[in-house]
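Example S7 (structure tokens).
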């Protein structure tokens, strides 16, 4: 049985917390895409763990797998493993031999290109994600398996590094250092390969996971980023370079689509919207790039909106886990969620952060868009069209600030009535049941309505 956890919006929906909660029943937690651009927060025994690469389940003694669809920076990998060990944990992490390696020149080029792109820049995490996936598709990448074979590693580097160096120096006119030096890279990455081999960390991912499924173990597939950051289904080009959508779980692990489809696909929804990085955002509150339809028209309202944005940002701790950047915030965008529900085939939803909105008089939702004079209910395919969409809002009566830990202990019925109305609206519109409700960052602050493994 597999359970796939997918972000339904723009990342940071609280996937790590849900993986931690449901992952309790899992034997293996595997990531299928992305790399150390992710930032997942897991609160365990009062201690906060921030992981950007290692699967969240590793904190709780599960086998953590980085699937073939991931891009792996060995430096981050070993840093995170060493940090977890220093904190008394014994993470068991495996890495797919087919996964691609992020090399220092990828990171350098990520930064260089972001600066060059101006309006087209996605505001990347500068972790080298895009350039590594580019090389994967260009069939000039270095894979984890190559690190274990020094001759192959040398051959790959000798082909690719001069091209990268020329790109940096001649096209972008930048000075380069040891991140573009073949000998230095060869020595450093060969050593990483030795450590991977010594610690017996590499696997043939699909086979490894299928064997687990066959003996009746439970596998959790942990998505990073979110549907609107998907390179195919997101708001291109303000996206990441992989497929966070559920289809990515099959390609990025080597488990067949029927195996994934036999299980559950849970969409993680933040009760409002937040994003780091650039691009349009029809339901945005305030912000430098205010796309909100003139909100309710007047200057005072605009100032209020800015205040509201700051309030939600602070209440929700909306500052990037990896980069610390303040996130842009907005109201829930239902066309975005309808798009996500279809693209992923959600079987259940986890709606997080309803506590953050507590105390507001009204909570608004972008129910549909007005697009060229017509009402539409899902996202249009181009980002230029999306930028022309004006959200049509529906208002919900707010719910009070309550003792959320007590609510969590009591269960769904204890959730303030107006918040229940809000949750039911989301479930109805997406035709998908709510499996869990997040009312705070801690593991005990999640109300489980349905456990997919039971
Ligand atoms: P991920 O990238 O989707 O795993 O999410 P992040 O960990 O980057 O961001 C989610 C943040 O919200 C973390 O700081 C979580 O501890 C926190 N969080 C998760 N669920 C809830 C919730 O229901 N309420 C509140 N207040 N915080 C939450
Ligand atoms: P988690 O897993 C939020 C955003 C970046 C940028 C775009 C491309 O924590 O939800 P990249 O470095 O991937 O090339 O950046 O995607 N981004 C995220 N935003 N949460 C994430 O991960 C993100 N990973 C990437 O801000 O706009
Ligand atoms: Mg995050």
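Recovered sequence:
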């Amino acid at each position: 049985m597999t359970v796939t956890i997918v972000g339904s919006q723009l990342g940071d929906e609280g996937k790590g917390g849900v993986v931690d909660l449901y992952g309790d029943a899992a034997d293996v937690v595997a990531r299928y895409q992305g790399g150390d651009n992710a930032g997942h927060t897991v609160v365990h025994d009062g201690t906060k763990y921030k992981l950007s690469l290692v699967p969240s389940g590793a904190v709780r003694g599960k086998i953590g797998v980085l699937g073939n669809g991931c891009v792996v920076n060995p430096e981050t990998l070993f840093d995170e493993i060493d940090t977890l060990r220093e904190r008394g944990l014994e993470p068991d992490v495996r890495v797919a031999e087919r996964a691609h390696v992020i090399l220092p020149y990828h990171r350098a080029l990520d930064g260089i290109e972001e600066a060059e792109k101006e309006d087209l820049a996605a505001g990347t995490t500068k972790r080298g994600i895009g350039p590594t996936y580019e090389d994967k598709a260009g069939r000039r990448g270095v894979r984890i398996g190559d690190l274990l074979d020094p001759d192959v590693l040398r051959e790959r580097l000798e082909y690719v590094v001069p091209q990268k160096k020329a790109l940096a120096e001649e096209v972008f006119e930048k000075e380069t250092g040891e991140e573009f030096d073949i000998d230095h890279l060869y020595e450093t990455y060969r050593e990483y390969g030795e450590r991977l081999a010594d610690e017996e960390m590499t696997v043939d991912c699909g086979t490894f996971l299928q064997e687990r499924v066959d003996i009746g173990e439970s596998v959790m597939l942990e998505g990073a980023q979110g549907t609107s950051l998907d390179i195919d289904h997101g708001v291109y080009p303000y996206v990441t370079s992989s497929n966070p959508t559920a289809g990515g779980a099959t390609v990025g692990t080597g488990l067949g689509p029927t195996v994934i489809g036999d299980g559950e696909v849970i969409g993680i929804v933040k009760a409002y919207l937040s994003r780091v990085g650039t691009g349009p955002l029809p339901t945005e509150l305030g912000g430098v790039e205010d796309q909100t339809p003139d909100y309710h028209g007047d200057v005072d309202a605009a100032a209020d909106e800015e205040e509201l944005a700051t309030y939600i940002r602070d209440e929700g701790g909306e500052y990037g886990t990896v980069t610390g950047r303040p996130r842009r915030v907005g109201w829930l965008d239902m066309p975005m969620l309808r798009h996500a529900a279809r693209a992923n085939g959600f079987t259940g939803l986890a709606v997080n952060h309803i506590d953050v909105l507590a105390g507001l008089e009204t909570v608004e939702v972008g129910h549909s868009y007005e697009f060229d004079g017509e009402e539409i209910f899902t996202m249009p395919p181009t980002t230029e069209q999306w930028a022309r969409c004006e959200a049509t809002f529906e208002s919900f009566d707010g719910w009070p600030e309550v003792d959320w830990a007590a609510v969590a202990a009591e269960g769904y019925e204890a959730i303030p009535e107006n918040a229940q109305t809000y949750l039911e609206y989301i479930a109805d519109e997406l035709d998908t049941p709510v499996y869990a409700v997040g009312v705070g960052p801690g593991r005990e602050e999640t109300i489980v309505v349905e456990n997919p493994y039971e």
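Notes on this example. The longest helix spans residues 150-171.
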